[in-house]
Design a protein that fits this description.
Lactate_perm; 508 residues; lactate transmembrane transporter activity; transmembrane; globular
């Protein structure tokens, strides 16, 4: 192990931790400076040719634009259109009219709706919307913020139409379906446990709060976990959280209605079937488009996938042409569904275009942040910096490394606020570590993703969204302190699952 080169290689990571976690710099500025530092280090410290470094960064920036930022824009766009048309208000009305029990509303809003919003949009919507509704319904704003931060963990693995796992697959070169399935297996236990934690936090009685709602809480977890495993195995990364959250909401609503008294049923605000369908139509179309363009329908999939553009960017050793597949990108499918759904909901074509323009402007700093972080990752990867870190970690921890692999993913999300960026930063490192240890690379890459869901809970960006949504700006430290202990427990469980289950299945 070369100590000097290892210390040089971790400078970009240390910079991101300090700039974002200590100096509280803006994400776009910190990541842009980080990219510059990485390019200079690769040239000076690792004898990486100047043009190799520049073209590596350009390849990363291109990957950031397509498909990552493209999908983020499309995902936020569908939410913005639904909000403008009133469809999102109808969806929320449908959920809040089901029960007056705050514990059940937490399952529906923080877990069910939050999981759904994370699946189709991400970008803070899964924390902001449920937290603000729970605060309006009478829950302590701090409690609402903490509950929604905890809820917005496991669903983030397949958030924004599967973008984190799809990006991890692209960064590591690992097949996306097997990777998706491995992630869902690692998260299975936590998906069942999280609803119980949410209910326990709803009242000031701890786990005594579960009395009377144990059955519905268990169903909420299982209804999310089981479909996610099967969908990830057979369809890939796009639909697991969408299907899981929809099944979860449906079964939770069904049981909640059976538990409701006649008085509650009589006073509930009614939403007609036609209004309900109209509210959900953009998301229904996303579901349909993704299924029919997937490998389940090979004729359609192959025809659409054949429309692609390939061009070289990186000029160094191991270079491959960069490929843009235009029509099967989730971004394209979401855009199409949103335009059709928006028209069905009564918006004009001009209004929808206007919302798209505002959404693109809204994403300006995100584009810089993601572009810089993906560019930084590519330079670190091609120049050998990630290889050196991986070898050093494996040398220091040996066969124990798989236990700490999720912690690295959690660190990435804490630093960047994004599961996708955490996978870009450390996905290749995990694969290199797997090769060094001669263990299953899918298992360690998935461990990075599983760990990344933990870091989301305490990410400064996530906490900022939660405080903004609940009127608690200035209370970030208090919320971080409360969320930190749950993050530690969550991370420990993930580490134990990855290590123990990996041993049991012969993966490590």
């Amino acid at each position: 192990m070369d100590v000097a080169q290892t210390l040089l290689a971790i400078i970009p990571i240390v910079w991101l931790i300090l700039s974002l976690g200590v100096f509280k710099m803006r994400g776009d500025l910190a990541c842009l400076i980080g990219l510059g530092i990485t390019i200079v280090l690769s040239i000076v410290g690792f004898s990486f040719p100047v043009m190799h470094s520049i073209t590596a960064a350009l390849e990363g920036i291109t990957m950031a634009i397509w498909p990552i930022v493209y999908v983020i824009i499309a995902a936020v766009f569908i939410y913005n259109v639904s909000k403008e048309s009133g469809g999102m208000d109808t969806i929320m009305k449908m959920l809040t009219s089901i029960s007056s029990d705050l514990r059940i509303l937490v399952l529906l809003l923080a877990w069910g709706l939050g999981g759904f919003l994370e699946a189709v949009a991400g970008f803070g919507t899964a924390v902001a919307i449920p937290a603000s509704i729970l605060a309006v319904l009478g829950m302590s704003p701090v409690k609402a913020a903490v509950i929604c931060l905890i809820a917005n963990t496991t669903p983030t693995a397949f958030g924004a139409i599967g973008l984190p796992v799809a990006t991890l697959s692209q960064v590591t070169g690992l097949e996306v379906k097997q990777l998706s399935y491995t992630v869902s297996i690692q998260l299975f236990i936590l998906i069942i446990l999280i609803p119980f934690i949410l209910v326990a936090l709803t009242e000031d009685k701890g786990f005594k709060s579960i009395k009377g709602v144990f059955g519905i809480t268990l169903v909420s977890g299982l209804a999310f976990a089981i479909p996610q495993v099967f969908i990830s195995k057979y369809l890939g990364a796009e639909l697991p959280s969408i299907v899981g959250s929809i099944v979860c909401i449906f079964l939770t609503v069904l049981i909640a209605k059976k538990m409701s008294s006649e008085e509650e049923k009589a006073s509930a605000e009614k939403v007609s079937t036609s209004d309900g369908i109209k509210a959900w139509i953009p998301f229904i179309l996303v579901f349909i488009f993704i299924i029919f363009s997937s490998s389940l329908f090979p004729v359609i999939n192959q025809a659409l996938s054949s429309i692609r553009t390939e061009f070289p960017i990186y000029i160094g050793e191991g270079a491959k042409p960069y490929s843009i597949v235009w029509l099967t990108s989730p971004g394209t499918l979401i855009l199409l569904a949103t335009f059709i759904g928006g028209r069905v909901q009564g918006l004009t074509f001009g209004q929808i275009l206007g919302i798209l323009g505002k959404t693109v402007k809204q994403m300006g700093k995100t584009m810089i942040t993601v572009g810089s972080i993906v560019g930084l990752s590519k330079v670190m990867g091609y120049s050998g910096m990630i290889d050196i870190i991986a070898v050093s970690l494996v040398t220091m921890t040996g066969s124990f490394y798989p236990f700490i692999a999720p912690i690295i993913g959690a660190l990435g999300t804490f630093i960047t606020g994004s599961d996708t960026s955490a996978n870009v930063l450390f996905g290749e490192l995990q694969v290199q570590a797997a090769h060094s240890l001669k263990v299953d690379p899918f298992w360690l890459a998935a461990a990075n993703m599983a760990g990344a869901t933990a870091g989301k809970m305490i990410s400064p960006q996530s906490i900022a969204v939660a405080t903004g949504a609940t009127g608690l700006v200035g209370e970030e430290g208090n919320i971080l302190k409360q969320a930190m202990k749950y993050c530690a427990i969550y991370t420990l469980i993930i580490c134990m699952v990855v290590f123990a289950l990996g041993k049991a299945l012969g993966k490590i």
